[in-house]
Structure of Apoptosis-inducing factor 3:
Amino acid sequence: EVKIEVVIPEKERSKEEMSPNGKTSPLIYKVNGTARHYHLEEHPIASNPYHNPKDVVEASVCHIKDLENGQMREVDLGCGKALLIKESGEFHAVGHKCPHYGAPLVKGVLSKGRVRCPWHGACFNIGTGDIEDFPGLDSLPRFQVKIEKEKVYIRASKQALQTQRRTKMMAKCISLSNYNLSSTNVLIIGAGAAGLVCAETLRQEGFSDRIVMCTMDRHLPYDRPKLSKSMDSHPEQIALRPKEFFCTYDIEVLTEMQVAAVDVKSKIAVFKDGFKMEYNKLLIATGNTPKTLSCKGKEMENVFNIRTPEDANCVVKLATSKNVVIVGASFLGMEVAAYLAERAHSVSLVELEHVPFKKFFGERVGRAVMKMFENNRVKFYMQTEVSELREQEGKLKEVVLKSGKVLRADVCVVGVGAVPATGFLKQSGINIDSKGFIVVNKMMQTNIPGVFAAGDAVTFPLALRNNKKVNVPHWQMAHMHGRIAALNMLAHGTEISTVPYLWTAMFGKSIRYAGHGEGFDDVVIQGDLDELKFVAFYTKSDEVVAVASMNYDPIVSKVAEVLAAGRTIRKRDVDAVVFLSFRTGDMSWLTGKGS
């Protein structure tokens, strides 16, 4: 029999002796040679997961021979499900849903001790449940497996089965009240994915000194991709963590606070209002700033760059049953157009190129996407620009194009790209390239000791492309940047090696993408573009450097695993063997088991 029960990995057990007052005895952690104390906070699983017998469920699910090596099965326990896995002759069991957006992991990719989400590429260790690649913040609950009489039983906590997520154990700050308000050990400028993951990783690794995050936003960290994919979401609906989380783990967040300058010699950040904060370690994760139009009327009412939940909410309200003009067929522009198509009276999209996404997905995929939009009442005005925005009584009335066309417009959304938000660093001595990006190494370190940078505002060496310095403004990559930066603040010497992974959602369909296709010279497409069921391999010379798909899961996650393992896919593989293996369901070549 195989029995599964919730268990805490050894590294996450608190085995310290209890002090006389009943609290866990503090451990010692050294930061820059200084001894620091911290208390471990175990959440949400207690040391004894079965202290309440009523919270335990046990059920028979299958025979031991029902699973072959390399197979996964979603099993139902009546009050919840688990993912049963067999690899290298051993059974493992973890939560069955990705904690990010709830994707069924049984449809994902199992490879060398981890399972990768089929939707957005997050990876989880099958032995511990720990998250190893992103997006998302939480790990999977892990269940212990036992074999008895060749039948499989699962014994698990009902709570773990229902939540399907596990927040890793974190340290808490000691004696926070003793700190000088103008001094912190770690200062994080920016409260996006990179900044939050950095803060959480520090706490997970036992760091117990003060952590301060500051942001120009009025909200705690939130799921920024939803601003264009789910525009009517309110801030509390897309918050990455509740307010209580930051209080529990002593992560301070200063909202509506803008850093105006950084003095790296004195280790002081100067805020716009004159406030100064001294730091020991600094993470710069300021992201980017959207470009604006340069034409007449750009400052008038009802012209938006989508930067906040309030911006997105306001656009939806103003656009309902009205005329919308979107400038720029960027990811943001296209997602906004798709979201508003059913709500607005009309949606017009203005773009300088002749095909959307041409530089990123290639012309053929771009045309297929464009056709999907046209079938959903979106009107394109290509190879032209905006020359003027006209108003009536102070509000937008018309958008005039350089082609001479005049479009009726009650609201205009601008999505023409962005620039790194690094202007405040120009006199800092931190290395900034000609485009304004912060230059970092594989450990997310800048040229200044103790100063790290992460997210959309950096260029870093991408292992996938022979350590070429690249900028990858993806949500998943920002998470990983934050984690690597935190580990190296603690002198772990960890280098980044993740494979870029992104997705876009339009009209209920998703395009998934992995790799880095910049400079691709050919696109090999298998499937049917007209039916929007395809996989596109982007090649440079003879090598596949990226892959995109629609309605072809989990192929992008499969290829991401190949690239993550350091294997090379040649163009000839795509043309001959690869697609045949997809049709038959044989993916052995991807996991290294086939020739």
About this structure: Residues 108 and 251 are 33 Å apart (CA to CA). Residues 1-50, 591-595 have pLDDT under 50 and may be disordered.
